[in-house]
């Protein structure tokens, strides 16, 4: 039996933050990277300053502003009120979206999927823009009418099921190309 060394990793929400941080650590430490990443509605910038999407969608049913702020400050000691917070937000393993170009240009092909009503929409757009500028193969799919955590709505919302199906198809296509 032949076992492929091709690895596509799929990360969701805060797990996508950990997946991006994992890639950064692999780059920093010289370990093999996955062959591709899929990040679904990722949190990639842990800065508390509101981006337009965080401001516009602060009443998201899955990720309202209070929960988002709690999640963001959970990455830091003293709930974001210490000097350590100021330094941690620029750590690329905490905020992969703020990583230096020298790290991001080594990223594997990355597909991002996010809803247009998600408070983390700007995280995906900014990350995609940076990867594309650095010539990293990247795709960004923004799904109309979907909020954060749309994977849980697959049975109820046709656009959510479409997002799930397209993401599965993207992974399958990556394997077919190998």
Give the helix/strand layout.
Layout: E1 8-12, H1 14-29, E2 36-40, H2 52-56, H3 65-73, H4 83-88, H5 101-104, E3 110-115, H6 121-133, E4 138-143, H7 158-176
Parallel strand pairs: 1-2, 2-3, 3-4
Explained architecture:
The protein has about 180 residues and is α/β, with parallel strands linked by helices. The chain has one domain (about 10-170): 3-Layer(aba) Sandwich (Rossmann fold), CATH 3.40.50. It contains seven helices and four strands, in the order E-H-E-H-H-H-H-E-H-E-H. The chain has helices at about 15-30, 50-55, 65-75, 85-90, 100-105, 120-135, 160-175, and strands at about 10, 35-40, 110-115, 140-145. Strands 1-2-3-4 form a four-stranded parallel beta sheet, with helices on both faces. It is globular and about 40 Å long. The relative contact order is 0.18. The model has no long low-confidence stretch (mean pLDDT about 85).
- Shape summary: globular
Number of strands: 4
Task: Specify the helix fraction band.
Answer: 40-55%
Number of domains: 1
Main sheet overview: 4 strands, parallel
Helix/strand class: alpha/beta
Q: How many helices in DSSP terms?
A: 7
CATH fold name? Rossmann fold
Can you give the mean pLDDT?
86
Low-confidence stretches: none
Amino- and carboxy-terminal Cα gap: 16 Å
* Spatial ordering of strands, largest sheet: 1-2-3-4
The CATH H-level superfamily is: Alpha/Beta hydrolase fold, catalytic domain
CATH architecture field: 3-Layer(aba) Sandwich
**CA-atom Rg in angstroms:** 16 Å
Order of helices and strands: EHEHHHHEHEH
The CATH class label is Alpha Beta
| Strand residue content | 5-15%
